[in-house]
From TrEMBL:
Assigned keywords, A-Z: Membrane, Transmembrane, Transmembrane helix
Family: Belongs to the peptidase A24 family.
One Pfam family named in its UniProt record: Peptidase_A24
Protein name: Prepilin peptidase
Keyword Transmembrane found: yes
Domain Prepilin type IV endopeptidase peptidase: 9-113
């Protein structure tokens, strides 16, 4: 069986496992991610051209990390979500990692709106979004402590959004007629 199929199978197992644990306990275990990194590097080392394959994989991991890190910095997601997207990028490579990040942001936004709708926390969500975005457009000193005192609208299992997006991208590889 080609290495690409093994990588896709492992990625499928990873994102489904991560989504299930994120839904159940709101954490993505580092052990899942470490095992995935070891598996990807090992599979690429068994490839006929290991260095370019490993370079592409690391580039994808860097893209996933770089595009999700700002959301962690502003407390928009947990570190496990950033590490999961970096690991997904390791499997997908840089170009597909960009796609995965953009589609995951969209899926996550839809999930957040649904959660806010069902919990009826519109005013808290608006205040949190305002305190998050307002310092970015203001010039001059701002008070960051005010944004820390707002009540959370609730934690979101972002691993689910990452999994749905990743599975959709993988499905497009094998069933090209699937599209938006």
């Amino acid at each position: 069986m080609p290495i690409s199929i093994w990588l896709d199978l492992l990625l499928t197992v990873l994102v489904v496992s991560a989504a299930v644990t994120d839904l159940a306990i709101r954490k993505i275990p580092n052990l899942f991610l470490l095992l995935a990194w070891c598996a990807v590097i090992s599979l690429h080392l068994a490839d006929t051209a290991p260095l370019p394959a490993i370079g592409t994989a690391l580039g994808g991991a860097l893209v996933g990390f770089a595009l999700f890190l700002p959301l962690y910095v502003v407390r928009g997601m947990a570190a496990g979500d950033v590490k999961l997207m970096s690991t997904v990028g390791l499997f997908l490579g840089p170009a597909e990692a960009v796609q995965a990040c953009i589609f995951t942001w969209c899926a996550g936004g839809i999930m957040a709106l649904v959660m806010i709708l069902f919990t009826r926390r519109w005013s808290d969500a608006y205040a949190n979004l305002r305190s998050l975005l307002l310092p970015m457009v203001r010039i001059g000193p701002t008070v960051q402590a005010a944004s820390l005192t707002r009540p959370s609208v609730g934690s979101m299992p972002y691993g689910l959004a990452i999994a749905v997006t990743t599975l959709w991208l993988l499905a497009q590889r094998y069933f090209p007629t699937i599209s938006l």
